[in-house]
User: Fold these one by one.
Assistant:
Number 1:
Amino acid sequence: MRKITYANWQIINGNCIDVLKNDWPKERKVDLVFADPPFGINFGTNNGYYNRDKNNVVGKYREVKQEDYQSFSAAWLEQAYRILKDNGLLWTVSGWTNNHITRTEALHLGFNLVNEVIWKHNFATWNPSKFISTHYVLSLYAKNPNNYYFNPTCRFPIVKGKGKNKENYADRLSVWEIPKEYRRGKEKTPNMLPYALVTKMLQYTTKKDFIILDLFLGSGIVGIAAYDLDCKYIGIELDEKIFRFARKFLSANTWSREDKQAYLDFLEYFVVSNEFEDCISID
Ligand SMILES: C[S@@+](CC[C@H](N)C(=O)[O-])C[C@H]1O[C@@H](n2cnc3c(N)ncnc32)[C@H](O)[C@@H]1O
């Protein structure tokens, strides 16, 4: 059975900006911030376009208005920068329409862009008057451009010799084609990243025991990938229904039955008390 220390395994129901500003212990730093924020595209009204039954979609998608997007981005990025270790990394997931805002604010704060990755998915929103968009933008930023973790051989070894390194080379190209996962007929959150995508992002940029902070938790899929990679995980979600879904989803996909129950009990406690420093471990 895996040993879990809950101080490093928490999900929190709250606004990530407020939680980090008001409740986060000063000395607590993380290795990687994962941020898949609302895109500012009025997503919550689009169930029809997304070809799904809205009765299966949990919670109220918390969008951010276009006019507020710059101040919203600056606020969460500032907190992310503050609680990241000096050699820490930030992954952001963005739509192409507002990525420039996130990028400008991130660079302004002192983040350094390491890579931009295009995630080409198997989904597109029809539009007769322009090109049909079928990608999201993943950006990897480092606090220090000369000191951050990147493991180029985490999925395929580097093989020396002409024509022999095809797998490693192909896997590290900056366009990734990974299908979305559809939970047809099942309960779901408004938008869940594919496990394969999140796992690839984390494999290259984390190692065992890294602490990952997921500012916009959603379904909890980043937590599942973090667990499978032996990392520690803290996730924050504003919407209570989505938070409750994530809690169920995480517990169903990770720990043994005894661990799950203890975790659920702890979370009930945590939601009420909203305290960080409790630390329960299970042997
Ligand atoms: C794009 S979704 C994240 C999806 C998630 N990565 C997944 O794969 O399931 C953004 C999530 O952030 C939540 N959210 C919006 N504003 C927030 C805030 N200020 N603090 C925390 N969560 C927020 C939304 O309710 C939504 O669930």
Number 2:
Amino acid sequence: MKQKNWPWWRSKPINLQQTRLNIQEKLRKSGENTPANTALVLLCHVLKRSKSWVLAHTEYQLTKPEKDTLQERLTDILTGKPLPYLLGEWPFFGRSFIVNPDVLIPRPETELLVEKAIQHAKFLDLPNIIDVGTGSGIIAASLAAEIPGAAITAVDISMKALAVAKQNAIRLGLTQINFAITDLLSPIRGLFNLICANLPYIPSRTLENLSVTKSEPHLALDGGPGGFSFISPLLEQSRSRLAVPGVILLEIESSLGEQALKLASASFPNAEIILHQDLAGHDRLVEIIQT
Ligand SMILES: C[S@@+](CC[C@H](N)C(=O)[O-])C[C@H]1O[C@@H](n2cnc3c(N)ncnc32)[C@H](O)[C@@H]1O
């Protein structure tokens, strides 16, 4: 009887190297951006081994349960499940964070916000910091780990996201973060030296055409008609919550830099306001410095 050529790893005894190359090819054909890395990470996940082990053991023969799991996971990816959700964790600023479909997948460009916050914190004694729209908690947890003595509040409107943020804080042994479910800053009292926010900022119409809408939470992405439905009210609320000295750091959508600058100066006419670009050269971060 002629054997089916899918799934190919069930029909023939092939080694790990060939398996990896076959997966890579499948991913490449499906339009995956980084097929070699995704194939390698997928094999590490299924075999519970390091990248170097997978690359070194070219002749290893996968067991039947390993082949079955591999087939399931590869099908997940080929049908659109993001790799971070499949792995259940994703790196950010040198640490690994639990992620699931209730939270946005950490993006490398958000590290810029964390770097700026750490730079400012060096000049502040025991700063009071808030992360608005914390999601998986990557900003709050990174700052808690990097800034000893800081008092950190992490808020989100999503109870499910906040549960993930709390799990991440526990996993990283960070006990100094206070979590709260809020709509932006509305029920929050006190003054903050650092207000950090990576809120939803993609204009609704732009979002309609993006594939992320299919897999990541709408609540984390949709910035309303102009992209400022959350950033704008946060700026207004921050007028009475920003300490002197104090800094606001806002991640923004790359096409909205100039508008973001105008909004920031309308709320903080006497502050120094700087627009920063990410590593790809896109407008990404608004820094408002009040002295
Ligand atoms: C773009 S995600 C960012 C998550 C995380 N800070 C990060 O950088 O990966 C935006 C987050 O803001 C939250 N959010 C949306 N509207 C909010 C609101 N009105 N108040 C507080 N958080 C909100 C969402 O639930 C989501 O977790």
